[in-house]
Fold:
Amino acid sequence: MVSGKVIVINKNGIHLRLAGEVAKAATRFNSEIMIVKDSEIANAKSILGVAGLGAEQGSELMIQAEGRDEKDALEYLVRMFEDNFSEGELSG
Structure:
C-alpha cells in the first residue's frame, strides 16, 4: 500500500462535481483507493463517498492506494489535487 497527503486548495472544497472527477479518475485504476479525512474513510471510486467527506478548503486528506497500479493511481490523484483540478481557483 502507498499513501500520500494532499491539502484541498479549491475555494469551494470538494463539491459534488469535483467528487465526480475524483471518482472518475479513480475508476481508471485497478487498485483499491481510499481517501481519509480525520477518522472518516471513503472509497475514492464513489462520488457520494468522496463528497460525503465534507472536505472544505484547507482540509488535509490522505489518499491510500493498494494494488498492482497503486503507485500510478496515487501519483495521478495527488497531481489532480495539487493542480486544483485544473480549475485555476488557487487561494490567495
In short: DSSP finds three helices and four strands in the chain. The longest strand covers residues 60-66. The CA atoms of residues 8 and 57 lie 5 Å apart. Strands lie at 2-7, 32-37, 40-43, 60-66.
